[in-house]
Design goal:
With 149 residues, this protein is of the alpha+beta class. The chain is built from four helices and seven strands; from the N terminus they run βααβββαβαββ. The mean pLDDT is 91.
Length: 149
């Protein structure tokens, strides 16, 4: 079941995100950040277990970012990620946002969702504020991708 996150989901979301952050596959998120942005998140719950999360964060007038996208390893390749991203894209449409981007290593997955690789320089400078926290900063090797809705 895909639904909006609640504050009770935050510890489980952090655990899922931390798994990938420790592998330097995504940006670490603090508990305070996750609580602060709970309303931006969608989660997938199966039999009472939180197995995935994804957020949509508005960046600019006509641009939003899909971020903190993670699905527990044992639940991957079951369509959960697709449903999470689709929920974010539907919300972007409802908000009147036509450009949704992500910074990712999961290029084939996002290509299947209709995202295209773009030059990072196309993104507004505001996007890079989170990058300062990344252990790879300033040598980011994530791929910027955009979906035009």
């Amino acid at each position: 079941m895909i639904r909006k996150a609640t504050v009770k989901d935050v510890p489980a979301m952090k655990s899922i995100i931390d798994t990938y952050a420790k592998q330097e596959m995504m940006l670490q998120r603090s508990l305070s950040e996750l609580y602060e942005f709970t309303r931006s998140f969608y989660v997938c719950e199966i039999n009472g277990e939180l197995v995935g999360c994804c957020a949509l964060q508005v960046s600019w007038e006509d641009m939003a970012e899909v971020l903190s996208f993670a699905v527990k390893q044992e639940y991957r390749d079951k369509g959960i990620g697709t449903k999470l991203v689709k929920a974010c894209l539907e919300e972007a449409k409802e908000l009147g946002i036509n450009n949704v981007f992500t910074l990712t290593y999961a290029v084939p997955f996002f290509e299947k969702q209709g995202f295209e690789i773009i030059d990072k320089q196309m993104l507004p400078h505001k996007v890079w504020t989170g990058c300062i926290k990344c252990p790879k900063f300033p040598n980011c090797d994530e791929i910027a991708m955009m979906k035009y809705i």
